[in-house]
């Protein structure tokens, strides 16, 4: 079953949005397979965002991610990568629709509350980085009202 990596960024944690965000993924019908609150070292943040290292906002992005605790999660379900990005909304909150997390809770691209993997391959890479000891198995397939 497909998995994605979701991170609630420091602003989302400080603003008390952890429960609201988890609620949205749970209510959609996705399964939580990993969850931890953690502080991120600079080198770890740089590794997570290494594909963006040449971008002018990279330094500020790393400072933002290491500025306070983040909530790292793995969510599982059918098409969870693409659907997760829809739940999150467009990167720039000015363009994210109402009803999405960024559309409802953010105004600045540099304080956009949440990260979600952008493809199945990057999800695998990010899950391996953030959850090196693996994730938690449970009987999520026994949900006849969610899964065919
Ligand atoms: P994320 O990785 O956080 O889910 O965001 P994304 O795929 O929607 O966007 P991406 O282009 O990968 O950018 C990663 C994060 O960098 C910050 N950003 N700032 N100041 C800027 O122009 C700018 N552009 C991007 C955002 O926090 C974005 O989520």
Written overview of the protein:
- The chain is of the alpha+beta class.
- It is built from 7 helices and 4 strands.
- It has helices at 10-14, 18-28, 42-48, 58-65, 80-88, 101-105, 120-130; strands at 3-8, 31-38, 70-76, 114-116.
- The relative contact order is 0.25.
- The model has no long low-confidence stretch (mean pLDDT 95).
- Bound molecules: ribavirin triphosphate.
- Ribavirin triphosphate (RTP) is lined by residues 52, 57, 61, 91, 109-110, 112, 115-116, 118.
Order of helices and strands: EHHEHHEHHEH
Task: Enumerate the spans where pLDDT stays under 50 for 5 or more consecutive residues.
Answer: none
Over the alpha carbons, how many angstroms does the gyration radius reach? Answer: 15 Å
End-to-end CA span? 13 Å
Bound molecules: ribavirin triphosphate
Number of β-strand runs: 4
Keywords: ATP-binding, Kinase, Nucleotide-binding, Transferase
Active site: 115 (pros-phosphohistidine intermediate)
Binding site for ATP: 9, 57, 85, 91, 102, 112
Domain Nucleoside diphosphate kinase-like: 1-138
Q: What features would you highlight for this structure?
A:
binds ribavirin triphosphate; alpha+beta; globular; Alpha-Beta Plaits; NDK-like_dom_sf; NDK-like_dom; ATP-binding; 4-stranded antiparallel sheet; 7 helices; 148 residues; nucleoside diphosphate kinase activity; single chain; 4 strands
